[in-house]
Amino acid sequence: MNERIDDITIVGGGAAGWLMALSLVTMLNKGESKVKVTLIESPNIPTIGVGEGTVTGFPRLLRQLGIKERDFLRRSDATYKCAGKFVGWSVDKQGNDRSFYNPFNNGGYINGFESSYYYHKFGPHGDAKSYVDNVLPTQMMVENALGPKEIGQGDYDSVMPYTYHLHAHAFSKQMAHIAQKRGVVHILDDFVDADLDEKGWITALNLKEKGKVPVKLVIDCTGFKGLILQQIMKEPYQEFGNHLLCDRAIPVPHPHRDIEKMRPCTTATAKSAGWIFDVPIYSRMGSGYVYSSQFKSEDEALHELLTHINDPELKDVTPQVIKMKVGRVRNTWVKNCIATGLAAGFVEPLEASAIYTIEMTARMLITYFPEKGITDPIINRFNQVMNRMYDEILNFIVMTYYTSNRPEPFWQAARNDIDIPPLLQENLELWKEFMPSAHDVEGKFLFDHWDYISLLNGQGYFEGVQFPTEKYLAKPDWVKYSQKMAETKRQLRRHLPSHYELLKHMHGG
């Protein structure tokens, strides 16, 4: 198709549709060339208002979209997120659960070597509780429920790196409001089917009330059903069931137990057949059990989740059980159709990557926007980048399960009955001799080698390993580094407000 693309049609609302619409109408219409963006949304599809996490880089997106931080926090019921806390994903030699943090920061170098080598050789210094606690302030600030910025700092400025937890439905409504003010055309109607030309390109969408709508470029945001790319364009969906076992999620909102002690982190607690997330948004908590239906019935999973939440008011709750379609389409861009959100893929919610994949789809479309027409080189490069992104997310999440030593049947199956992606298998063998390095991670979208170091340290993966690099290290260098970090933590604890005080200020009291 060599026709100039000046008209984009998005099918489906929610976070995927409205974030795409807002990103495209904002970023593509700053110059002299203008692009029309239309979003078609069914009035008959209910939304699920769960608490959801985002990843580092999301504040940058909001800044680029011209959204004030305080407005975002208020309208999306948002809180700050500075780390992910993993509880019980492995056990120590006595069989006790381990807990560790994956921070939004790197552990730094000492004389050219990763600080993790020093920690492994010399152990924690002073009162540090873990590797992350020894080399970063993150664990200290989370455990003391501190905010990542001082009250009065500018939008998206901070002392510590952060992103957010948000209410997914409220966030979608906020994006929709801004997008329509900036010119996105909103059509409330049900999508029926699409007309294709002789080469398989979409020429028009057929709607229940409005009838035929001519299109040039279509973005499929129709969720797990994949109504356009998968069902009409027949693009195959590659399931990840041979890599990941969890296929169900039960979300349950519930009140804060003590809002003034709300911590700026997502907590992922390992359970008998999966894990439970605890996401603090401003008005309430959002918890949910992500589990494998092979190892746990719906009733058993709900019982385990409610036992974890421990709120008598929830004893008669009947939440929705979500069947997760874990995997991705073979290609996210086919002819003149691009899928994003759940229509493109989903690698389970462990690393809160869902909104990130939508953002990356928008960024890649803007980078490779076919203003002069859609060509094979554009489509091929776009798909290569997006496929690498999904593969990177898959590798990291598979590793999190695979390196667990929990004894339950589910966890044994997560180690023994799955296919390990080849690059991950190669790296895990290498990391028995060397710590992860910047050269080991291909994609570098969400996870750099520091994320691997933090997680593998937390899982106890390096226990008993003697790294050749350690013979080059001197203990005084480790002590000096550790003392400097300990002083940094003392200063931050003295000056940072509590997470709740900061949120109360940002939300307006």
TrEMBL record:
<keyword id="KW-0274">FAD</keyword>
<dbReference type="InterPro" id="IPR033856">
    <property type="entry name" value="Trp_halogen"/>
</dbReference>
<dbReference type="InterPro" id="IPR050816">
    <property type="entry name" value="Flavin-dep_Halogenase_NPB"/>
</dbReference>
<protein>
    <submittedName>
        <fullName>Tryptophan 7-halogenase</fullName>
    </submittedName>
</protein>
<feature type="binding site">
    <location>
        <position position="81"/>
    </location>
    <ligand>
        <name>7-chloro-L-tryptophan</name>
    </ligand>
</feature>
<keyword id="KW-0547">Nucleotide-binding</keyword>
<keyword id="KW-0285">Flavoprotein</keyword>
<feature type="binding site">
    <location>
        <begin position="13"/>
        <end position="16"/>
    </location>
    <ligand>
        <name>FAD</name>
    </ligand>
</feature>
<feature type="binding site">
    <location>
        <position position="355"/>
    </location>
    <ligand>
        <name>FAD</name>
    </ligand>
</feature>
<dbReference type="InterPro" id="IPR006905">
    <property type="entry name" value="Flavin_halogenase"/>
</dbReference>
<dbReference type="GO" id="GO:0004497">
    <property type="term" value="F:monooxygenase activity"/>
</dbReference>
<dbReference type="Pfam" id="PF04820">
    <property type="entry name" value="Trp_halogenase"/>
</dbReference>
<dbReference type="GO" id="GO:0000166">
    <property type="term" value="F:nucleotide binding"/>
</dbReference>
<dbReference type="InterPro" id="IPR036188">
    <property type="entry name" value="FAD/NAD-bd_sf"/>
</dbReference>
<feature type="binding site">
    <location>
        <position position="351"/>
    </location>
    <ligand>
        <name>L-tryptophan</name>
    </ligand>
</feature>
<feature type="binding site">
    <location>
        <position position="342"/>
    </location>
    <ligand>
        <name>FAD</name>
    </ligand>
</feature>
<feature type="active site">
    <location>
        <position position="81"/>
    </location>
</feature>
